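2.7 Reproducibility. Because tokenized structures are sensitive to small changes in the input, we list the exact sequence used for Alpha-protein kinase 2, including any N-terminal residues retained from the expression construct. No trimming or masking was applied before prediction.
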Amino acid sequence: FAMQECYVQNTAREYAKIYAAEAEPLEGFGEVPEIIPIFLVHRPANNIPYATVEEELVGEFVKYSVRDGKEVNFLRRDSEAGQKCCTFQHWVYEKTNGNLLVTDLQGVGMKLTDVGIATLAKGYKGFKGNCSISFIEQFRALHQCNKYCEMLGLKSLRTTHQKQRKATSAKSKNLPNSSTIKKPVPKKAREPRDFISSEH
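Resulting structure tokens (single pass, no recycling of outputs):
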């Protein structure tokens, strides 16, 4: 668990560094959120041999996004740090073609810690996150762009999500009603089948 925590947070930190490199030079963008590093420590003499160590954040601890991606926190929408965290999520989502989302952004001011990452079921470039794929779907449906998204030239997710929904509903309208089509079903198909669990 400690290794997974380090792996996720430090991966998110690498994305945050690239985001900062793109955002900081933009006129008027200002300070960019930073995900602090987390380190794994092996303590062989201890009953719990592994621990994580990170910088202590002093000040008011704020959750800028909840783990499932719902935008319910006013500090997320109304504060500069909250808006920039929201833009960071949008930026990562767009850079990875919707395959990855940094979630659970929280911390003190612009310093963030204890983040999560959601990936599609297949993962992204060999990386699998620690959050449900539903967080990506919820983010895509609920995200509201702000001025920082516009400064970075990010595409609105509203139009993309609405187009996907219209395409899906149009496909379902064009499908024939299954009750009007009668196909002969071989007797073998009616017999109960053995299912093999895909869980490992």
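The chain has seven helices and eight strands.
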